[in-house]
Amino acid sequence: TAIVKLEDVHLSFGNTQVLKGIDLTVNKGDAVSIIGPSGSGKSTLLRCINALAMPQSGRITVAGTRVDTLTKESERIELRKRVGIVFQQYNLFPHLTVLDNIVLAPTRILGADRTATEKLARELLEKVRLSEKADAYPGQLSGGQQQRVAIARALAMKPELVLFDEVTSALDPETVGEVLWVIRDLIRDGMTSILVTHEMRFAEEISDTVVFTENGRVVAHGSPKEIFHDS
Ligand code: ADP
Ligand code: ADP
């Protein structure tokens, strides 16, 4: 069943058309990779899914909610509680420990129980292979470790799907792998995931569907087998 559906989505910034009629369907439990040249609209497409960008026309449905018609910021915030996003910049709070960075949003924004959330946070730290860093501060961690904390923080909200926007692009090459392995584990666990990435081989390995964008359009769309081995 579809958890994300974009139909003929058009988006412009001023006179610049950035999305020129995007159609995209993502089924629950699937991993979809979006690949394309810089400036082709990948990031904007992703941001449309959690209402960080709003299209001028078209229809966007995410987990049963019509997103393109959410006019109130409060409604968009409600949507974002259910759609996790991880950015290139991890943006952890430097004065909070790793554990407190993860616990903050569920307790403050969702009003989740502190003890239960700490337990969940420790489970998530295990999942991202950082159990021993719970009491460390972000500044004491490598970029790859901080990005894995950012992933755990997104998961602590128990999202229905997670968006990854070039999450390894700012990392030192030697820490890229550890972040990709964590994402691969999540996908294998069945987390619905949409990734904007330049990691072709990773996309080929983990994706159910690969989408190529160019100049605001989807120019190819299919299984990794169809995309990487045909024509
Ligand atoms: P990609 O992720 O494929 O690199 P983006 O979606 O980031 O592409 O950007 C597509 C185009 O839209 C680029 O030309 C970019 O400069 C422009 N753009 C993105 N965000 C904004 C914005 N908030 N305001 C104006 N232009 C933007
Ligand atoms: P990336 O290609 O990695 O997505 P960009 O430089 O395109 O990075 O975008 C970084 C941020 O700046 C995004 O929030 C994007 O929306 C915004 N942005 C990009 N281009 C413009 C622009 N021309 N005017 C205003 N904001 C922009």
From TrEMBL:
CDD domains: ABC_HisP_GlnQ (cd03262). Transmembrane segments: none annotated. It is a peripheral membrane protein. Residues 4-231 form the ABC transporter domain. The keyword Transport applies. Keywords: Amino-acid transport, ATP-binding, Cell inner membrane, Cell membrane, Membrane, Nucleotide-binding, Transport. It is found in: Cell inner membrane; Cell membrane. One of its GO terms (molecular function) is ATP hydrolysis activity. Signal peptide: none annotated. InterPro entries: AAA+_ATPase (IPR003593), ABC_ATPase_HisP-typ (IPR030679), ABC_transporter-like_ATP-bd (IPR003439), ABC_transporter-like_CS (IPR017871), MetN_ABC_transporter-like (IPR050086), P-loop_NTPase (IPR027417). One of its GO terms (cellular component) is plasma membrane. It comes from the Bacteria. Belongs to the ABC transporter superfamily. This is Phosphate ABC transporter ATP-binding protein. The lineage of its organism: Bacteria, Pseudomonadati, Pseudomonadota, Alphaproteobacteria, Hyphomicrobiales.
